[in-house]
Model the fold of this input.
Amino acid sequence: MDIQLKRGVLEICVLSAMRKEDAYGYKIIKDLSPFMEVSESTLYPILKRLEQSGCVTEYSVEHNGRLRKYYRITEAGHDRINEFLNDWDSVMRAYHFIKGDAENDKD
Amino acid sequence: MTKIEYLKKLKLALRQVKNEERKKSLAYFSEVIDDRMEDGIPEETAVSELESIEAAAERIIAEAMTQDQIKPKRSVWEIVLIVLGFPLWFPLLLTVALVVLIMYIVVWILVGSLFITSISLVIGGVAAILVMFFAGGLAPAFACLGVGLVCAGLGVALFVPAMFFARAYAPATPEMWNKLKNRKEGIIHE
Done:
């Protein structure tokens, strides 16, 4: 997959993973694992970017004598997901157009 | 590889990243490893299943570059100045370190002498009271008793401020020690 596209999709997946409840790094990886393989080191820059663009906020909670960072999706984050879903409709129309064209070529 | 080893190596690989961002990313990896271990994965496996240090560092650095979180490189001139200035800055640094150390020792000596004064006043007081039985005469005996009680009283009274200062100052010791140790080990826990 195109790197740019994959990156965008991953960001939305991470955002979706915290829609139900606030999540921490390892939980996001585990929740996403049935759908897509995300490594810890891939997730870190994504979370950082989401935080910087105001899509998530972070806070620390003490857990077993150490700090765990939780991420919470913001209004802007929800907007991002909806935007993506809307965009995807037009991408799918383009997809069908492209696929149809390709199949016509074969004939 | 243990968690500490992984973090140490990652820290080294991230030396060009600005301190704050480097700390954040190390804290993230520390947390992820802890969470994996808490999930029942043995430490070695939890670490070995992570992406290689090089790959992880590459991603962090690539992201840091887009956000101006890379340390400015030292120019050749700066390096030359640091090297040439060694005879100047090294003795200065050493002097400052020694002055801090000596100030630290002096304060403990002051606290210690308060204790010694307090204890010796009590001992002297008790001795004076005992001496009263050998004073030979009522007046000298009472004089001894008086002096003894005053000394012992002062000694006991002095013990209070001595304890106060010792208590107030004692926490500075482990704190200083920890700071030194953290510097050496260089592993952060936010």
